[in-house]
Amino acid sequence: MSKVIVIDGNSIASRAFYALPLLSNSSGLHTNAVYGFTTMLLKLIEEQKPTHFLVAFDAGKVVFRHQEYGEYKGGRLKTPPELSEQFPLIKELLESFGIRRFELAGYEADDIIGTLTKAADAAEDMEVLVVTGDKDMLQLSSDKVTIALTRKGISEMELYDPAAIQEKYGLSPQQIIDLKGLMGDTSDNIPGIPGVGEKTALKMLHQYGSVEAVLEHADELTGKMKEKVKEHAQDARMSKELATIFREVPMDLEWTGMAYQGYDPASLAGMFRKLEFKSLLEKLDLTGASLAADEAEAGAGGNAELAVRVLKPADVADFAADGLDRIEAVHVELYGENPHLSTVVGVAFYADGEAVVLPFDVLNADEAEPVRLWLADADKPKRIYDQHRAELALHWRGMLLKGCAFDVHLAGYLLDPTDTTLSLHALALKYKAPSVEDDEAVFGKGAKYQVPEEAVLGAHLGRKVRAVAELSVRMQAELERLGMDKLYHELELPLSGVLADMEKTGIKTNAEVLHQLGAEFGAQLEGLMAKIYEHGGGEFNINSPKQLGEVLFERLGLSTAGVKKNKTGYSTDADVLEKLSSKHEIVRYILDYRTLAKLQSTYVEGLLKEIRPETGKIHTYFRQTIAATGRLSSQYPNLQNIPIRLEEGRKIRKAFVPSEPGWRIVAADYSQIELRVLAHISGDEKLIEAFQLDMDIHTKTAMDVFGVSADQVDANMRRQAKAVNFGIVYGISSYGLSQNLDIGRLEADRFIEQYFAVFQGVRAYMDDIVKHAKRDGYVTTLLARRRYLPEINASNFNLRSFAERTAMNTPIQGTAADIIKLAMVRMAERLKEEKLASRMLLQVHDELVFEVPEEEFEIMQKLVPEVMSKALELKVPLKAEVSTGTNWYESK
Predict the structure, then answer these.
(1) Domain residue ranges of the chain, discontinuous segments joined by +
(2) Tens digit of pLDDT for each residue in 265-288?
(3) To which H or E segment does residue 884 belong?
(4) 2-258 architecture in CATH?
């Protein structure tokens, strides 16, 4: 028996998009629909074990049904670009899976599936499962065809054969068409008969059997229904016809072309890496397959024999005397993601075609003191891989690393900020350097990690350090060719040292304050629980979605309209609760409970675990090579993500205090830096004027967009203007704006158009930057940071649209990131030049945090905003607002 799976591609992609939160990879490409689609494919392959597989897509907006009824699907809103851009990725994904896809101009996916299932009905030994979110497909059910309707997004399905349809609706599959004919379908703009819903339509069909029979017996109906049926008889006939799936699509029905042979591991792994589906790579154990494919494609990269010496303590003196002055490259091998806790496996040096490896115990021996001094000497230039991590890891073992002249890891990021595979293995492949084996193949992964025997370790680290030497030459030339040499050597490279110094310093954290907040939050949580139990009619597990759903929707009888339901009960996610918050007092208590519970677990308990006992401080790790825009990211722990919208969240900052008695925390925050960059880049006269006059930009925007005076701008107008201002910077669509402001898509569209009508310079910039991107294939920041946009000239509209939005916002976001990085480098220089004891501790988005002794307080209040405001000269003033306090909370 052949098992055929047919998926309604548009339906499932759409359901996946709306079921999952917006996800995106490091290049900003949205991936939530692709991820949901992928998990469904994997589940179907595992559970159903298909012999044949096909995914059908709609080929366009106009189909043959429009000839009969021009308003067919006329009420549908335009597909959000966040979803549209994912269809090409889904189709590329299907190729990686080895699954055939089909679409044909003039026909919908339903018609393709209808034609396939009709053929299956006529064939022998054929069983078909149709996966869709569209109830219309139930009309295709037969003894050989089962319809799987998705529920709870796409994670669960209800199976319908003719018996199941009869049980639920009391109808045959064919009568599903009559049901649609009577009740219509607002999503497809099929009219049906006004006032006839599913309940009424089912009653009519149970009595009369079909649309035609209902119309014939219209005189037997009573009241207004009789009039409506007679008046709209033609609409009912047309609606039934529109709802009838066409099953004669001219297509090749050769089943062998749909045979499913399984996926190619290397192809699928490559796709997962592009999409950054790391969990799926691990789940399917595809990492090795992907890397092997990379190696086969790139070739060996000119591997020559490499002499490697692994030193013993007794050998170090000769090496130090003879070899250190000849060193071309250094590599520090670490184990562990958090460099503050990483194990130093060893250090490798490369010179004159030979690699010398010192395992950590040798590097740590007394005999290796000359080597450690060389590593610590800032006047000894070193080419290295990921100097930042290496410096931190060595620091915690009492060793210094200074004098980085070139960082291969950092250069790889700058040359392509969307590349997430910046390992030496991947970089060697990409730049055709001598190959380096993947670390997992040498050390293993996770619990299986172990340092191999000396000869294997030496050979691996030797190849790595040789790659550093070769890559640094090639990458330096590439940076110069692309005009990023200055950005690299004057900003990014010195910044890595500044960050390492900040991270080694850390920020003093008062554990007692966190314990007090924990007790305070705990008491508040108990009070909230009591109120929730009181309003909910008794105790229950608030953290159980199932029990909470029963209380809200069954015990309290709140409306379930639009609320998803699964086998465990109703959804009680944040979106559902927000919509219900005005319906019952208990809902606001539940939302407050969840917020406090997260603050308690993630930030009170979580930060307590991160305080280093020997310093009493938290030492975060600023990732310099993650965000495609150039922004820094904080990890282990993330100190950029402490919630500050609620007072309880802001209180967490009370725990961050100066490390010396009598010192103060000074915080300096750029004011609306991205909008100021937009004003400069676009040259928009109204924006420039507003900033030069130091006006509130959101009030100014509201005045211009709504056509009112300053005193007429109310809080809601300003809130909407603010959302649009920042939405423009981030390339927001009408869908995104409608979600942010909780307004309709059409209203959001009008708002954006009003904005562009007023700020015409911004519109001109958006148009011009896209033209330049199409011509050049990339965009740059004011400091020449480059981001490539390979899809900018794609024939596919959705891919091209995403690239266009990225072209618009990257120069703005990237320049803002460059400015605060410049300010950090220059602040570090000024602190050193002025011989100040003050220390820079944190960067949080557009904010810098310092600890300052009392005697330097006045100096720093002037110096910090001066340096920040002069980081880069723009047509509008850069403005940094400084505040102080005895802790970070007070300083804000």
Answers:
(1) 2-258, 309-474
(2) 888 988 888 888 888 887 887 765
(3) strand 880-885
(4) 3-Layer(aba) Sandwich (3.40)
